[in-house]
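Dock glutamine; give full complex structure.
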Amino acid sequence: MLASLTVHELGARFRRGEATPSQAAQAYLERIDALDPQVRAYLTVTREEALKQAAAADLRFKSATPLGPLDGVPIGLKDVLCTRGIRTTCGSKILETFVPPYDATVVARLREAGAVVLGKLNMDEFAMGSSTENSAYFSTRNPWDLARVPGGSSGGSAAAVSADLAAATLGTDTGGSIRQPAAFCGNVGLKPTYGRVSRYGLIAFASSLDQIGPFGKDVEDAALMLRAIAGHDPLDSTSVDVPVPDYAAELGKGIAGLTLGVPAEYFIEGMDPEVKAATRAAIAALEKLGARTQPVSLPHTEYGLAAYYLIAPAECSSNLARYDGVKYGLRAPKARNIVDMYSKTRAQGFGREVKRRVMLGTYALSAGYYDAYYGKAQRVRTLVRRDFQQAFERVDLIVAPTTPNVAFKMGEKEDPLQMYLNDVFTIPVNLAGLPGLSVPAGFTRTGLPIGLQLIGRPFEEATLLRAAHAYERATEWHKRKPALP
Ligand code: GLN
């Protein structure tokens, strides 16, 4: 079963001549045909192109000139990333017919590394949501229980990895949209430091928070994917010129000698007792592997959510002003004049959650309210960041649950505020611009995955990956597969 292998296992088979990239692409495409009608991870499958790219990779292996660890590896991309010549919807009707004329930098880098693109993955519209139910097209399902959500907004990317519908995928994380779905689907999801990965060609949601990152079947796969996409890009002025380590090569360094901080504020009233117990057990396992732990305090955690739900809508209201029926995608017919055309296009093209946020954000930014809302939220953001700075003077990493609960039922959280609460433990990390990772750390009695979150200092993704790898090697969680019919 080629589709069940990790990226590094698959690469090893290619190099030994035991399998070809074409066989791997074929295996994934067959699996997508068989299972995606139930999981619904893909918005677009790029079959012909995938087979063409795989055939090109076959030749490189035949002539013993592979491009590296991702050569010939079938991957999927969240549909928020621009792909040249391939429809990019962002989960929205307003971009239903948008075909970008260029590749996002991360896409170009994966292509240069030889990766084979299987298609574009479902997501909450404009990455706003925690369940993928806000997609304008359909909801993706959790491979562990098809009646439950995969998390969001990168639900398609997470479900595809866990259901073996892609070897690895990319998602984006503005307030938790990589880590939360990774936790819900039981795989490894990494949100890099703000500035670590170029966002050129990423359709913007909230520009001071958005980061692109990988989903992998294990930690090593996440490391290989991050290495391929990270690094400075002259096309994105927020990408930082910091050297990119060979993350996979550093995985073996282990965790002995590291000090882990355990924040009291991340074990709250009302969280799932099974998540709490699994997190405690994971911390004990990390101690057994040689890490020291100590309590840390992040006292402004409880204000993170409120600050985020001012900053993110404010930035999205500005970013989404460009969808006016003139430049991209949808244009409403039968408009009386240009203002009527703008408003009809936006009324027809955007879904409920997007409209809610554009309205909230426009209000928060309007004259007379700016200081009271946006300005105040930015000051709270500084306090949240300082909490982390102080903690990182004493500890190397912070360990916490990724989410307060496991995957919920589709349709269960109709109140937007209930939905927003999913991200209490992930949002502060975006506000502070730090790297964060979710690694499988157990299952509930009913068989739903639980994620452990590791948070690091800026640009210390290597430390996160090292610690997660040590934990992964001491546990079996990542080896379990959902029983899909
Ligand atoms: N769930 C959060 C939101 O709805 C985070 C989304 C994200 O990270 N893209 O905004």
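Observed: The pocket of glutamine is lined by residues 127-130, 153, 173-177, 205, 312, 423 (CB under 6 Å).
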